[in-house]
Known about the structure:
transmembrane helix; DoxX family protein; DoxX; membrane; mainly alpha
Amino acid sequence: MDLALWISAWVLAVVALVGGVSKTFVAKEKLAGVHGGGWTEGVGERSVKVLGVLELLAAAGLVLPALLDRVPVLVPVTAACWVLLMIGAMVTHGRRREFGFVVLNLAYLALAAFIAWGRFGPESFTG
């Protein structure tokens, strides 16, 4: 199970890194033009950048605390926060009737919930 949790954390960290880099460093107008980027239409540039920075922090928080053995409880805390972020993403895409993205966000949410459950519980770094 430990291996499954590590793989899940790395997969989610890569997803967060890619999303965070694009939202932080790509112009909002360019994001709006890509498939799935229409959600940026009603959102300010600063809000898009803040979401990007949160995703970059999530990418780091999902793996670095455990790798560096520094406050590893941040891994499941980050995963729990990712669950909340995905709920927001699902609501946003649902309102736009982008149900494919709702399902994708639900998959990311499930992965994050698995990490949070596993690292708070049976495969805790403190145990």
